[in-house]
Amino acid sequence: MKIFNLSKLFTITCCFLFLTTACDQQQPSKTVVQQPTEPTPASTTTLIRAGEFTQFLLDPHQVNDLQNTALLYDLYEGLVSYDIHGNIIPAIAQSWESKDQKVWLFHLRPEAKWSDGSPVTASDFVQSWQNLLTSKATLAKYLGFIALQNAEKILSDKLPATALGLQAIDEHTLQIQLDKANAHLPLMLAHIALMPTKKALYNGAYQLMEIDEQKIKLTANPYYWNKAHVSFQNVEYWRNNLSSTQIDWQLATNRTGTEIQLVPKLCSYYYELNPHHPTLQNVAVRQALISLISSQSAVANVAINGKASASLLPKSMLFGAYLNLPPAEQLLKQANINNQHPLHLNLSYDDSPANRQIAQNLARQFAQSDLIRVTSQAKTSQQWANEHIQQQFQLIRSGWCADYNDPSAFLNIFHSKSPDNLMHYHNPQIDQWLEQAMVETEAEKRQQLYQQVVDTLAQDAIILPLFQYYLPVYIAPNLAGYDLNNPTQIFYSKDLYRLVQ
C-alpha cells in the first residue's frame, strides 16, 4: 500500500515547478494592502484581471496553468475554500465530521445553488469526481493523492468509477471514504480538481457572461450562497493589452514599479545530498557540506523570483531547525578526509541560467575548504531526471511545490514509502512521526511531531534548502481584500474590493 501518494504532477501542471526560474528582482512584501495616498479613478463594480493565458479553459479538470486556475476559482466552489490568509474555511460544505478519520461526512449548505437556481447536491460531487477519474485527465491522479478509496485501482482500470469511495447519503450529505486514516483531509479539498461541474452551470461567486479570444467576462452569480460578500459585480480576464492602466490585478507579471508585490508560493528550491553515495554515507560529511553554505550567498545576484531561505518549509509555517555543529574541517577529518585524501564533490543540475549560477555560487562556497574538490555538471532535463531517479548523483538540484497549505504537504515526501521519496531516504523514526501526525487531531501535538521531523531531517543533512519561491503580482493601489502573506497563490475575486474616497 502506498502510505503517502504525493505526486509532483499536479504542481508541475499548475506551477511549472522548477525547470526555469523567472527574472524579476525581489520587492519588499506587505502584509495587507493599505489606504492608497493617490487612488486612481476606477470602477467599483468591475474588476480587471490579466495574465499570459495560453487559452481560456472553463473545465477545472483540464486546467494547465495558474492564470486559468484563478479564473476557475471565480466560477466554481468546492467543499471548502481559502480565506484571504490561505486558511481553509467552509464553502459548499458548511460542516464535516469523522469518527475514525477514515470515513468522513460533509454536510452541504441547503442554500448552495447552481447558476440556474438548482441546488448543489452531494450527487453533483459524486458525478464530477467519477467523471474526473474516467476522463484520465492529468489532475485525476489527485484523487489517488488524497487516498480516496479505490481511486488508484480505478485509474489503473482495475475497478469501475462507481467503486470510488464516494457516496451521496442524501441530497446534502456526502460521504468520503479513504484508504487510510487522515485527520486533516479538509485541508486537501480546496484543490481545483475537486470543484464540482454540471454542464454549463457554475456554483461559484461568478458565472460566464461573454468570451472571445482575447477577453472573458464574468458577472455575479445571483444564486451564489454568499453573494452578500461579493463587491465587484463584474470581472474581466484579459489576454492582451497587458500594460493597460485599467488592469487591477496581474499574476506573474513582467511589469516593474512600486505596485509590484511578491507573493509567497508553496514551493522550495534545494539540493539533495545522496546518503547512499559512498562519499556521502557518513552523516558528518553531509553536515560539513551544509555548514559551509549560506543560502543568502548561494542566490546572491541570481535572477530569481524568490527569497533566500535555509528552511524547507515556507516562512508562513513557522518551523525552524537549529544545528550546533563543529567546524566543517573538524567534521571532515572525523570522516578521514584530509589533504592527502580530499573529498571529490560533483553538483548536478538541470541547465538554466539561474540553476547554473547557483551551482557556481555553491561550488565557490564549498571550495573555501582545502579538503574539498568541487565540479559541477549541467544536464539536460532528461539527463537530470534520469540521474535523480536512478540515484546516480552526489548533490543534485531539486525542489518541491505543495498541493495544499500544510506542513504535511512538504514533509510526507520523506516517508520511506512515499513514491516521491526519490532519494530513498529511510528513517524509521520519521516514518513513525509522520504517521502519527496524519491522525493527530490536537494542533499542538501535531506541531510537535512535525517539529521533530524537521529537526531530524536537519540532523541527517539530506537536503540543502536555498530559497523559497515568490510570485510577482501587479496590484492596483486602490484594491483591498487580500493578504500578501497568503502562500496559496489563490486570490478570489469575490474577496477583493475597491478603496474609494
UniProtKB/TrEMBL annotation:
Show the InterPro entries listed in the entry.
Answer: Peptide/Ni-bd, SBP_5, SBP_5_dom
Domain spans labelled Solute-binding protein family: 88-419
Q: Name one GO cellular component term.
A: outer membrane-bounded periplasmic space
Annotated signal sequence range: 1-24
* Superkingdom as given in the UniProt entry: Bacteria
Cellular location of this protein? Answer: Cell envelope
Q: What GO molecular function terms would the record report?
A: peptide transmembrane transporter activity
Where is this protein primarily located? other
Keyword entries, A-Z: Signal, Transport
Annotated PROSITE patterns: PROKAR_LIPOPROTEIN
The answer to whether UniProt assigns keyword Transport to this entry is: yes
GO terms under biological process: peptide transport
Q: Which family does it belong to?
A: Belongs to the bacterial solute-binding protein 5 family.
Q: What is this protein called?
A: Solute-binding protein family 5 domain-containing protein
Q: Which organism is it from?
A: Gallibacterium salpingitidis
